[in-house]
């Protein structure tokens, strides 16, 4: 194990397992403890045979005895160890931290990594003995977020930690990570000094453009140029090298040729630079990252546009964009410099600005996860916009984004949805693009508002910036041009909104304001003769109707007048305006769109956010699960499980399985049918036979011994030596058929899928997907998320189907060995549902911990 991670002050440490070569470092750590710390550690002020104790600590006895150390600049700051007790899943844990480092979170970080490692090696509980006077150590244990028991016994307290990482633990770890991340990103987004390395004298060079933008933007800190051939660049003092600078800059922007980047990064690290922005492309990623990690720096890029912030105390534009950043409240992160410029320019045209911009490029280090945590705590940022072509740690992203989106809108431009787009993204960012189904499920569940273009993004940002969220999806359209009002109504319906039905009082009030030829039904056509004042009064009347959640106005100028000036805010309800060919902000805070479809789409994004915020966040508590038995079934297995084992596995998770008998002879099959005493289905179990119906491996409704024997012989002739047996099941009563399944992605985890089942499932491809774990709201969305859901679920027991989906998700999350699960069909009845057929593929699972605090090291 070798991982880089952040301490609470934002500094970087390396956490790794210790061995015999680390004895001297461990001795130095222990000998450096003051007498008080030695007493608290060893219950003695003069520990005997310290050398023998340290050598035993690093004796090679994994997984029964493990020691982790945290290093910074090659110096050991602390060590945590566990020793398995009596070959059980209990382990005694111990921790020692240098006295000078005890307030920086070294011990907590070490325990997090030690617990993660121990879980992967079968340890389930840590135990420790702590002196009652050792309050600091007790606080370290109790603040971990794990289930903890404390038993005092005289001068000693016995502590036990349950290593199962529940939601509370993950929340606590995420909070610690957020604090550390914000501290480290201060060097990137709030630097007190910057050096542009490779700042050319030619205005056509990237380095010159970055330095020029910093000067023109009035960066408030100290600014330096590094160019061995110039004394001054763009009016800024220039130095021959980083070493020659009068001080170590907090942030260095590298615009040097790609081959020189690793060496310059190494020089920056030795000089004491805290963060790098690497503009250069084609850089050796491994060499660059090694230099960054060796010196505890943070890194943006390489292959990026740069970074900027409009905070008044900083005013930093360290990019080579053509224009300075307009100050505003939107945080923008993008892998593409071109997208960053496009969004920035479009927002500028609308009078909207950025709080900060980070172009991550190849994102070797700083990623969307880091920036989400920064913007969560940044008071200048009210809206967050993302353009991502791939995810480094999507499970952590989902958890962070869900928390951030609860307080601030998070939007993302969907990228690489097509095969061609995925190829281009892989070429562009040197990383694999994310499958669109998985990405969309992640965005939807995390509350990220997904759009497909820069204009869609800015349209939604306009609405979110200037208007409140609607209380529902009921919309009124007010227009002085009937045809455009109809188009607006059609666009609303296409976006999942619906047209409000006005109350009698609203219609009566409107009738007093508009000509008799006007239409008082929704959409309202005031006719072309109304003036600004009348149009404004009509808007007030409609906005006051309790049935209306939002209003879209559509106005065009005529020879008789232009009522656009009458469009205004309505208290507590969003108002979006349409004026053909015009996208801007009207008087007050009303966003104006160039066509009805764009206004309807923006309003739908507001409704989407309101719906997500109103969703319940509960996760169901499921009983009737025998996890120990299920884990034993999949341990050490690989490939498709036999049908009888599939039945046992699903039954262990409380799923309503029809069951059956695996028969290896015709006589055995006949006996099974007679025991059931009903017509049966016979299903061949043969090598490489996955789709039994298509492969001729199913006989249905066999009602007697002769039919069973004949079907068995037919399977023997058809499949020969490939036949491993015949699964005999009682026939299920008829009903509508669904599928429910799981496909596990190495990064994203289990993806739960449901939809139309039966033999036509592949032909119609009508499915919905969501990532595990599923909340009850996620399960509802999944249940109603495919096209034929309304027809298939009509009259069915939806609660029973929902519970099946929740149990399937629970199985997938608890058993990482299950890489593929397919229930088809799940037969629905008026009183429940039953799993008629299923298959499960398992593979040895490697222990991974996506929520462990660590930085990328390769």
Shape, principal axes of CA atoms: flat
CATH architect. name of the largest domain: 3-Layer(aba) Sandwich
CATH class of the largest domain: Alpha Beta
Strand content: 25-35%
Q: What do we call the CATH homologous superfamily of the largest domain?
A: Succinyl-CoA synthetase domains
The number of distinct structural domains comes to 5
Low-confidence stretches: 420-433
**What is the percent of helical residues?**
25-40%
Distance between the termini: 13 Å
What is the β-strand count?
Answer: 40
Mean pLDDT: 92
Radius of gyration: 32 Å
**Largest sheet features:** 8 strands, mixed
Q: Helix segment count?
A: 27
Q: Structural class of the secondary elements?
A: alpha/beta
Tell me the strand order in the biggest sheet: 1-2-3-4-5-6-8-7
By CATH, the topology of the largest domain is Rossmann fold
GO molecular function, one term: acyltransferase activity
Pfam family, one: CoA_binding_2
EC number: 2.3.1.-
Protein name: GNAT family N-acetyltransferase
What does this structure look like?
With about 850 residues, the chain is α/β, with parallel strands linked by helices. The protein folds into five domains: about 1-165, Gcn5-related N-acetyltransferase (GNAT) (Aminopeptidase, 3-Layer(aba) Sandwich), CATH 3.40.630.30; about 185-465, Succinyl-CoA synthetase domains (Rossmann fold, 3-Layer(aba) Sandwich), CATH 3.40.50.261; about 470-615, 3-Layer(aba) Sandwich (Rossmann fold); about 620-660 and about 730-858, ATP-grasp fold, B domain (D-amino Acid Aminotransferase, Chain A, domain 1, 2-Layer Sandwich), CATH 3.30.470.20; about 660-730, Dna Ligase, domain 1 (2-Layer Sandwich). The chain is built from 27 helices and 40 strands. The strands form six sheets. The chain has an eight-stranded mixed β-sheet with strand order 1-2-3-4-5-6-8-7, with helices on both faces. A seven-stranded mixed β-sheet has the order 11-12-10-9-13-14-15, with helices on both faces. Strand 11 (about 230-235) and strand 12 form a beta hairpin. Helix 6 packs across helix 11, helix 11 (about 370-375) runs parallel beside helix 12 (about 395-405) and helix 12 (about 395-405) runs parallel beside helix 14. The longest helix has 23 residues, at about 165-190. The radius of gyration is 32 Å and the shape is flat. Residues about 420-435 have low confidence and may be disordered.
């Amino acid at each position: 194990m070798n991982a880089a991670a952040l301490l609470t002050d934002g500094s970087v440490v390396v956490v790794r397992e210790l061995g015999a070569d680390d004895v001297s470092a461990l001795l130095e750590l222990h000998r450096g403890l003051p007498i008080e710390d030695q007493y608290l550690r060893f219950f003695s002020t003069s520990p005997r045979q310290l050398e023998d104790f340290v050598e035993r600590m690093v004796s090679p006895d994994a997984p029964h005895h493990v020691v982790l150390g945290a290093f910074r600049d090659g110096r050991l700051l602390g060590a945590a160890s566990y020793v398995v007790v009596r070959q059980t899943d209990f382990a005694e844990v111990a921790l020692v931290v240098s006295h000078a480092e005890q307030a920086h979170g070294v011990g907590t970080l070490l325990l997090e990594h030690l617990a993660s490692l121990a879980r992967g090696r079968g340890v389930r509980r840590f135990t420790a003995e702590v002196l009652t006077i050792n309050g600091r150590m007790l606080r370290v244990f109790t603040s971990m977020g794990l289930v903890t028991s404390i038993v005092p016994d005289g001068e000693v307290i016995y502590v036990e930690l349950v290593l199962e990482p529940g939601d509370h633990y993950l929340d606590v770890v995420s909070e610690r990570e957020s604090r550390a991340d914000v501290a480290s990103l201060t060097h990137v987004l709030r630097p007190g000094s910057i050096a542009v390395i490779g700042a050319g004298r030619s205005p056509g060079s990237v380095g010159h453009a970055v330095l020029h933008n910093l000067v023109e933007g009035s960066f408030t800190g100290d600014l330096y140029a590094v160019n061995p051939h110039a004394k001054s660049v763009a009016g800024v003092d220039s130095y021959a090298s980083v070493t020659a600078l009068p001080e170590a800059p907090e942030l260095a922007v590298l615009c040097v040729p790609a081959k020189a980047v690793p060496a310059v990064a190494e020089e920056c690290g030795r000089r004491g630079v805290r963060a790098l922005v690497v503009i250069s492309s084609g850089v050796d990623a491994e060499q660059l990252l090694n230099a960054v990690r060796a010196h505890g720096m943070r890194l943006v890029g390489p292959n990026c546009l740069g970074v900027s912030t409009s905070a008044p105390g900083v005013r930093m534009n360290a990019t080579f964009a053509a224009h300075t950043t307009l100050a505003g409240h939107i945080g923008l992160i993008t892998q593409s410099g071109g997208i960053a410029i496009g969004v920035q320019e479009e927002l500028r045209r609308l009078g909207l600005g950025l709080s900060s911009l980070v172009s991550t490029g190849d994102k070797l280090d700083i990623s969307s996860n880091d920036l989400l945590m920064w913007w969560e705590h940044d008071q200048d940022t009210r809206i967050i916009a993302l353009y991502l072509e791939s995810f480094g740690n999507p499970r952590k992203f989902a958890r962070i984004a869900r928390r951030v989106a609860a307080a601030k809108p998070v939007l993302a431009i969907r990228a690489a949805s097509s095969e061609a787009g995925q190829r281009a993204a892989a070429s562009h960012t040197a990383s694999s693009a994310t499958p669109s189904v998985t990405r969309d499920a992640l965005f939807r569940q995390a509350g990220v508002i997904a759009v497909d273009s820069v204009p869609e993004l800015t349209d939604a940002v306009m609405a979110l910036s200037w208007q409140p969220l609607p209380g529902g999806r009921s919309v009124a359209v007010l227009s002085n041009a009937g045809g455009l009002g109809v188009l607006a109504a059609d666009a609303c319906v296409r976006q999942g909104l619906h047209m409000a039905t006005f109350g009698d009082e609203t219609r009566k009030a409107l009738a007093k304001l508009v000509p008799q030829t006007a239409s008082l039904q929704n959409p309202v056509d005031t006719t072309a003769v109304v003036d600004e004042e009348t149009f404004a009064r009509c808007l007030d009347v409609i906005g006051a109707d309790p049935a209306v959640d939002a209003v879209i106005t559509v106005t065009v100028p005529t020879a008789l007048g232009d009522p656009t000036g009458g469009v205004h805010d309505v208290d507590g309800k969003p108002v979006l305006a349409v004026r053909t060919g015009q996208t801007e902000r009207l008087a007050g805070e009303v966003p104006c769109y160039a066509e009805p479809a764009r206004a309807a789409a923006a309003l739908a994004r507001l409704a989407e956010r309101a719906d997500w915020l109103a969703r319940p966040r509960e996760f169901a508590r499921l009983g009737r699960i025998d996890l120990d038995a299920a884990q034993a079934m999949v341990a050490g297995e690989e490939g498709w499980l036999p049908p009888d084992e599939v039945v046992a596995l699903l039954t262990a998770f409380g799923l309503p399985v029809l069951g059956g008998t695996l028969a290896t002879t015709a006589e055995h099959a006949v006996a099974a049918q007679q025991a059931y005493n009903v017509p049966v289905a016979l299903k061949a179990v043969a090598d490489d036979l996955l789709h039994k119906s298509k492969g001729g491996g199913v006989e249905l409704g066999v009602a007697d011994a002769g039919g069973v024997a004949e079907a068995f012989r037919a399977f023997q002739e058809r499949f020969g030596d490939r036949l491993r047996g015949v699964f005999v099941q009682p026939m299920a009563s008829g009903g509508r058929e669904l599928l429910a399944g799981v496909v596990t992605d190495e990064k994203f985890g289990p993806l739960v899928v449901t939809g139309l089942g039966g033999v036509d499932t592949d032909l119609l491809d009508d499915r919905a997907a969501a990532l595990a774990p599923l909340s009850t709201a996620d399960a509802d969305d999944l249940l109603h998320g495919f096209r034929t859901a309304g027809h298939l679920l009509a009259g069915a027991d939806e609660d029973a189907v929902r519970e099946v989906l929740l149990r399937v998700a629970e199985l997938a999350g608890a058993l990482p060995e299950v890489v593929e699960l397919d229930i088809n069909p799940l037969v629905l009845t008026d009183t429940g549902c039953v799993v008629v057929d299923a298959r499960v593929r398992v593979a040895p699972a490697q222990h991974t911990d996506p929520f462990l605090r660590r930085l990328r090291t390769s």
